[in-house]
């Protein structure tokens, strides 16, 4: 069945989702809203959709699902409104910068029985999915250590940094989710260190641009994450899982894979320049999976709980840097109840 | 301007082009024809196009361009009819299995001033295009030697072999075109050897399944081609250009680039399983380029002449195997006149 | 000038050094001692050297330099005796498991003006040296993050674990030295986590077999280290340095670099099986450098201070795991005086 | 048993063998001869050997084996003299530039029952040996196509070209031997094309600097060889064997395997600069194998017949270029008798 979409937010990531929706044979983009009227009409026009107000979209009878790409501080309210209106919801991460607000929001979603998927797009990258499949088939035995290197090609403007909740909630949050997903066990403690090496303005905005994180599970599995807001060679996205019987890794991706050899050596081109080109296929598969969930009325993953836990890991990392100690995730989340057991997949 | 397409032939390669056309924002698939009514209606239905007869499509006023994906022995006639009807023409290779028939066909195209592009899809592969760009920018100096390895994952049925004109006209023809394109100079002599190593039925059908070819230009540049109808590891497509200042190569492509390490070593997955997945992007870019040519009324490449010369190289290879000698291309083509100078690009 | 060597200790690492010494045109192996008479005579016989007692070697007038490969708890005493006897000293790491004992030993070395090199062999690996040269030439700009993955193919016997001082003092100590060397700035804090995933007997012996470490310098540079006592795919030794202008890495090494392709994919053989084959060339170059230092009477690096600091980093890691906090290196070393500034290369 | 060597010829390749002999625990270099007295005494002095005349070495009772590294036109006479003197013989390729002279020489060797090994060093490269082992274990099924790319970093002086017998007898001869070795079946026909692209002086000397060769066996197996006297990126030495069940290849080798990433891309260093560094290990293993043959009195390979056939392939290639046709190897060799069956291993 064709799923009829309303898109809330026509900015950078909104455009990415508009493309994925309109390229999917089982989806139709009905309407777009944005606080900036021009942005909404431009995007709507490109894909033959209507411009409507956000409330109108949420209340519309000809729309089955909303995709929330608005500023972070509106996410939780919009999720609640859409859940109450009976819409299926795809929301960009994070749900909110505040753990308690997220918990409250998820209670509404739960109460309404709404379908909610959170936008951890990397789980849908075909290379990362293939890594996960190798792990799940037991080919590398019991997972022991996950290693993630994740570097952005350039630093965001300090203004963005202020609104984003900082590097851990904005950038590392993707790596936290991937680490949990690959470890297959909940993370118990977070240790982090962070500094400003790229742009002093980021430090002045109260954030960091370079970070290292160690994660540990109750059974002693490890993950390490290495983040930088700088990578002259492109968007650096590597994962590796080491287990009792072997290891599996995903290589970096580049737009063209050629090699030039001369007296200076053998040179391959730089990597993709950022997430829009690196994860094109992941975004398309993510929407496709969401559509499957909507049509089959099955639970969507990454779920709201996945979003909550990744945010809690970010919060724990912030505390760890400030206090110079390993922080328990339960210090941040409090007791999670029955749904707190690991549900990644 | 949107180009309105008629698709002649709804078989394997017709489906590939239908997908490329309908995925292009500047194209519209108006009608599909096929000798098998079911094939036509199924493909037309999938993309919201009409089913029409071949002649009706060629004569239609609401169609700007035809894509010819019918059996090879119909190509030349259809090209001539479409040229006379004022249609822009995209034709799958080869134009015909007979060099003289191709020459006659191209005279009609010339006389009508028709736009004709021949389907050497590999020129539009982004990796191969990047190789060509490195060569054209002079980064490797003067081209000296082109090395092509091109192996199909499996042998075609003997029945196909009989209709196809044999390995040189069906399979190597792509490599001949790439060799010319990368050498940047016309090929003067062809030496080939061929044998049956994969499937005796191919030998019984009068063809070969394993072939090696050497090409030389007047100035002494070389190309070597290695072909097999068998490759257990997937669709093997490698090119390398060696020049006075360096070399450039395009690696093989695989659907996912992960690596599993264990006591048996480090293993990456097999390559793409065949051309439909390996050259998906090339087919899309090919149609896009064709649309640009139609809209700008500029000469299309690969041109009819490119198709003619690649066929002549195949014919020369056949003779070389039979006679155990280096065959001059001019023995096959006869004098080509002014247009016989190199026009690749 | 030929340097005349006495070798103290004819065990596994003693044999490695005997081979490096006798393969060097500027060295001669005069005598070998070992608590096990058979081991000494076997090794001495193989290379045409004499068997002598340890004290006799240290006091001999026909010996210029000693190589200390005895059990760790004898290192400091032997270094002091050799220093007082005017011998140049090459000592396997660590100098002692106790930081205060090392400091006392180094005072004697200093007072005697003895040449002392500590066996951090990896600094002499040609691939790692090439990485360091790229960093030193400024090709990647200012160093920001060092990433080290270092995994042993198999776990040592629990008995060894007890004597070795544990994973951080025995195994990670090499990575601590490489991290300092590549960061080019002293490490200020150490955060570590460790667990037992490979062999419960290691846990029963009071040690860990899986460890992750984060290091930070005063200016905010990072290093991460990932260690395991298990790697089914061979001796895994990777380093990467990320800087403001780029990054440089050293790949893993394997005995033969071939690739087999079939329906299961593309497979390269496993890595070297352990340090004896992986670092053969490094051991030869290490002794060669030591000989140069002896002949030129220049200060040797890695120095005794390098050995002390690496040990202090290990001690800090142990505390960090136990106390769940970032540990300052100065908590372990106390004030180091003028020589405490960074002197690595 | 220690084999006592006499070395005839102290030039470039003589030095390579002197190093291999003196580095082997089962060999002793007793004496060196050279037409240039200085060259002989310098090399002898370096390794503690005596200088003697060539005849004196061949007749000496304290010498078991000779290594012939003199100019090519002396090889056959020296082999015959050494065979008659009861010496084991290692001779650099080629035995002679004339096929009939080689046949006559091998008759003497046969009659005397002498041990003769011909210096096709590449068979002893550990990477190529690993390729051969994969083939011999049947891992890739029946061999179908061998692909060799072999490029020298720079062209030899025209003077050398004149004496060497030309590119096919001097350079390609190694590739002919490797092709035979890997095909596992005698070559029946040779097709070659060659040109002058690198240095006109080579053309004036009557030779070529760029060559392509196709080989075919009676059962239809193929090999292709691509040669150039120019490669700005180092000594390019690649082999690949394609079979019915898969393929196996050996990668190029470089002195250090690091990678630098920056805005220009990912760069690995150039390859080894020539055969002395690329094949260091092969030369050592070659002499080791020769010593084994001498000690076990077993037949040595590569044998004199292997040397003869590789030379015949070169001669056939020369004719193929001149006559523009596929040349049968039997046209060059005439009937080879019982020993003409394939004996490669």
From TrEMBL, chains A, B, C, D:
Residues 3-120 form the Gfo/Idh/MocA-like oxidoreductase N-terminal domain. GO terms for molecular function: inositol 2-dehydrogenase (NAD+) activity. It comes from the Bacteria. Residues 128-248 form the GFO/IDH/MocA-like oxidoreductase domain. InterPro entries: Gfo/Idh/MocA-like_OxRdtase_N, GFO_IDH_MocA-like_dom, Myo_inos_IolG, NAD(P)-bd_dom_sf. Keywords: Oxidoreductase. Its EC number is 1.1.1.18. It is an enzyme of class 1 (oxidoreductase). Belongs to the Gfo/Idh/MocA family. This is Inositol 2-dehydrogenase. It comes from Devosia albogilva.
């Amino acid at each position: 069945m064709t799923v009829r979409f309303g898109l809330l937010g026509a900015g950078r990531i909104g455009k990415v989702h508009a493309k994925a929706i309109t390229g999917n044979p089982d989806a139709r983009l009905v309407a777009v809203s944005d606080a900036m009227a021009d942005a909404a009409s431009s995007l709507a026009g490109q894909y033959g959709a209507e411009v409507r107000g956000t409330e109108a979209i949420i209340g519309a009878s000809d729309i089955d699902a909303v995709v929330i790409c608005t500023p972070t501080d509106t996410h939780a309210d919009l999720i609640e409104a859409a859940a109450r209106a009976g819409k299926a919801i795809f929301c960009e991460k994070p749900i909110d910068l505040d753990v308690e607000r997220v918990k409250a929001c998820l209670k509404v979603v739960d109460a309404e029985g709404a379908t909610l998927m959170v936008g951890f797009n990397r789980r849908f990258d075909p290379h990362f999915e293939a890594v996960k499949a190798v792990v799940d088939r037991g080919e590398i035995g019991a997972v022991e250590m996950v290693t993630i290197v994740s570097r952005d090609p350039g630093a965001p403007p300090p203004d963005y940094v202020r609104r984003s909740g900082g590097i851990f909630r904005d950038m590392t949050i993707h790596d936290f989710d991937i680490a949990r997903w690959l470890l297959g066990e909940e993370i118990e403690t977070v240790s982090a260190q962070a500094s400003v090496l790229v742009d002093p303005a980021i430090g002045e905005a109260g954030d960091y641009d370079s970070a290292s994180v160690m994660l540990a599970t109750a059974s002693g599995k490890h993950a390490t994450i290495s983040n930088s807001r700088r990578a002259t060679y492109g968007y650096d996205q590597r994962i590796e899982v080491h287990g009792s019987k072997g290891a599996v890794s995903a290589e970096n991706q580049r737009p063209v894979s050629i090699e030039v050899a001369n007296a200076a050596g053998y040179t391959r081109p730089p990597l993709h320049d950022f997430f829009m080109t690196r994860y094109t296929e992941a975004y398309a598969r993510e929407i496709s999976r969401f559509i499957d969930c909507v049509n089959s009325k099955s639970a969507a993953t990454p779920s709201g709980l996945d979003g909550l836990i990744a945010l809690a890991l970010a919060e724990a990392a912030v505390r760890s840097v400030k206090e110079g100690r390993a922080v328990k995730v339960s210090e941040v989340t409090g007791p999670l109840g029955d749904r707190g057991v690991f549900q990644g997949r």
